[in-house]
Amino acid sequence: MGAPGERDVLRDVQRAVQRAVQRDVLRDVQRAVQRAVLRDVQRAVQRDVLRDVQRAVQRAVQRAVQRALEGRPESRPEGRAEGRPENPRGPSRGPSRGTSRGTSRGPSRGP
């Protein structure tokens, strides 16, 4: 090539291009690493959350089953309906919530 000044300029340009390429490559690598790490972290969090939810559901089901088993006597007396307490006052005389009585609506009005 030509004069020493031209070689210096060429060397400076090559260095500048090399630095720019390195910056671009480094930025691309950093973004790729960030995406990979974020994806891995999200998967791990989802796994942990799913595991925690599964455990919570399992505990809730176990508690519900345990409560149901504790609330149910081993042997029921004859003639008693399943899941209903015995009525010491005798058999029921109609619906427990008196729809025909109209107590929740107040006094009846005429037409």
UniProtKB/TrEMBL annotation:
Bias (Polar residues) ranges: 97-111
Domain of life: Eukaryota
Region described as Disordered: spans on this chain: 65-111
UniProt feature, compositional bias: Basic and acidic residues: 69-87
Name under which the protein is recorded: Uncharacterized protein
Species whose genome carries this gene: Muraenolepis orangiensis (Patagonian moray cod)
